[in-house]
Amino acid sequence: MPRQPRLDIPDVLHHVIVRGIERRDIFAEDADKERFVASLSALLTKSATKCYAWALMSNHLHLLLMPTRVSLAETMRRLLTGYAVYFNRKYQRCGHLFQNRYKSILCGQP
Asked: Locate the Transposase IS200-like domain: which residues (predicted)?
């Protein structure tokens, strides 16, 4: 059965959930979280995406984002790919870091 197409609507809040593969840690130490937030901040500025909240746990994360100019899919692709490359190099690992694709739930307006 094919996947449902992702709803990627500008100017609408999206609750984004990303989980580590096999529920493994995606943040091994605080420096990893700091790196992720710095990358997120830079991408939000470039894409004019608004971030209303974030929560980073050791093996998953939540973001409350409102894309405007750049699609949510493009922003998340850049964020997650860049972070996975950083994490894999730092911890001398290879392969997938995240389980499946990110989950996105449409929310009401803030």
From this structure: 9-109
